From TrEMBL:
Magnesium as UniProt keyword: yes
Family: Belongs to the HAD-like hydrolase superfamily. SerB family.
EC numbers on record: 3.1.3.3
Protein name: Phosphoserine phosphatase
InterPro entries associated with the record: HAD-like_SerB, HAD-like_sf, HAD_sf, PSP
Gene Ontology molecular-function annotations: L-phosphoserine phosphatase activity; magnesium ion binding
Biological processes annotated in GO: L-serine biosynthetic process
Pfam families in the cross-refs: Hydrolase (PF00702)
Superkingdom of the organism of origin: Bacteria
Catalytic-site annotation from UniProt: 87, 89
Amino acid sequence: MNLILQAQKSANVSSSDIDAVAALAGGRAEQLADARVPDADAWRVAGVTFSDDLKTRIDAACLAAQLDYAFVDPARKLADFRLVAMDMDSTLITIECIDEIADMQGLKPQVAEITEAAMRGEIEFNESLLRRVALLKGLDASALQRVYDERLKLSPGAENMLRTIQAAGLKTLLVSGGFTFFTDRMKERLGLDYTHSNTLEIVDGKLTGRVVGGIVNADEKRLTVERVCQEIGARPSQAIVMGDGANDLKMMGISGLSVAFRAKPVVRAQASVGLNFVGLDGILNLLG
């Protein structure tokens, strides 16, 4: 395997930290000459023999040094994949939209607490969503546009990642436990191929505190990835799936490459790759 190390340029990771991690892996680090991420530095340690024990030691050393790492098959290419599927809140974008909507009601702490518990897997997602949406009852629907205009920002590296994978011919799917108001706008803004999310009920310009139709939970996310793969003539193993919370684990589990982005520990532990420090485009340095 190759061990790929990455760090934000602004982190100024020391060469001694890189050398120490490379030594743990039984090799020497070389600068990645074909790095595709403008805001990050990357190094390759070639010919590494993977083991769970080594992964545990590398994980601890990299966390301390603010390095991201991944064990990758050197033969694996971006061209091996057909689809990139992404969660939205706290993955493609930096915020949890429902928390910011709740802030318009002065209820952000209460809603954010439920959101965090759901993302850690402590509360079943359907229950958590219905409880949070119920707290929004009576809010003027114009609050959604305010959140989009004033608070929604793309995660670091999102545009570079999307630009590169779209140029390579991969399809894109945004599948979210959030809301169509935001995913529809992301689809148009970023030229995404597919989106799927929940619909907030609005009556007379006010949120009713209810969701229309079925809930996009962990099972529905997995089924959506499978449906889109079937539609484009691909296998789930040809999908790269990115997420941050427990609700993403089932769709990540069927993918060929699962990416935990700024994720909860339960997600990082099960993902192929964790990106804790570099942007979403960090995946580009992992694939030839």
